[in-house]
Design brief:
Layout lengths: L2 H33 L9 H10 L4 E2 L1 H4 L4 E2 L5 E2 L7 H7 L11 H24 L7 H16 L3 H6 L6 H23 L5 H14 L4 H22 L4 H26 L15 E2 H4 L8 H9 L7 H10 L3 H11 L7 E2 L6 H4 L1 H12 L5 H19 L3 E2 L1 H5 L3 H17 L4 H29 L14 H10 L8 H4 L4
Parallel strand pairs: 5-6
Antiparallel strand pairs: 1-3, 2-3, 2-4
Amino acid sequence: MAPGVSDRVEQRSSLPGIALGAVLLAMVQFLAEIGTSQPFIGEFIYNYYFLSLVDGSLTVPAQIAGLEGFYDSEGRAYLYHGLGPLITRALAWPFLDLTVWDLRAPTIWLFATIGSAAFYAAALSVLSGVWPEDAGQGRGLKLAVWLLIWVLAPGFVYAANGSFFHEPVAFAFAMTGVAVLCLWRLVRSGFTGWHWLLAMAVAGAMAVHGRPHVAVGLYGATTLAALVTLWQMRVRALIPAAVAMAVLLAGGLVYLQMNALRFGDIATTSGTTSEGGAVYGFLYWGWEAPDDPRFLSNQTHGRFNAGRILPNLYFYGLAMGGEGATGIYRRLTADLGHIRIEPPVLGFVLLWLPWCILAITALVRRRGPPAYLALGLVATVPGALVMLAYTTITMRYRMELWPVLFVPALMALAAMLERSRQNPEAQRRIVMSLTVSSAAAVAVGLLNVYVYHDILKWDWGTALRSYEDCAAMVAGQPGLGPDRVADICVLD
């Protein structure tokens, strides 16, 4: 079957699973919204961010930015957030009043679904050449793959919590999924399907505006893929490769320009936690003191410190909460500054057990297209290392480690099915084991989202939201005072 025809057949076969997954994520999100004890933080932040940009301004009302904003000496609020999640606002703007309709939930759902669908399509495509001939085993494998992608993966967790923090991470997850899918198509074409290279470049360039550290790997993988494409196609690939590099460059330049416009320097990704420049809202409004442990940790040990990678990997992977695991972690990081830990604490070895087993198997039995494995790791490992070096342990950051497991686990599963093609009994055991382990892991996934759905809803999320609270804080701010209330508190 020709590659183009094969792609279309695989796309049609994946549609029912994608439709079912989209409904599942919508249901999870709906239950989380009605089940949370109070609203998730970040209402209307991205809405007003978009409206400000439409008006030619980089500032948003202080009542919207709240403590998440960075404030200059005039009390103007800037956001450090990327532009990616604004896509949904741009689409809805002609039809909806964005000061009335908050698009957090639809945005999270959309990008969680796109990411899950892309990874799901990639998984089915990789496994299509080794799919069991027995119909029963084929159905069992498809169920297992569906559970692995739609329940035991980040999209499920992102949908379970409506905080605006999930908008950029879900967006980056979607771009990573698209890039990984396009990479597989490119590898399968023998690096001659240059349109897949262009699509990878677009995904990488867009990821910069959601989670820049995620884009680092996507940029690297796309650049290496472009070099291999040039080697394979020679002169015919010059224009596609050049266009792909131009797309990456454009995405990066826009990001750097936004940094310069907001914070005065292309290399500055946010404001400051000290005097001078745009000051973090928690400090600006006196909500936290400059000697708070998390601010001191950033100053003395950096927000990103390579020494945290191994201890954080231990905690993200193995810790299940409790004083014992936390105590060990605190001893391991005693010289690395304060590291904030947010609940729930659930190690990914338990949360993603089937993925972990398959990924380890891939290291022992290296099979499958080496280019896909190598480039897949280039695309996903850098972003994971950055988050492992960070000063906060939280579930949404744990989810950013999952893509590292995807390609090696998939290669391992494909190799196992290929080796057992002539042994139906062995193939049956593989499919049965995967199905049972995936179904059992669902219980852990459900427990995780049940706990997580009621997180990220702190009281500080609405610190300046009402006019009365805003007026009181502005009036009491030494650099502002009562005369500035009317200028800064502009919302009823």
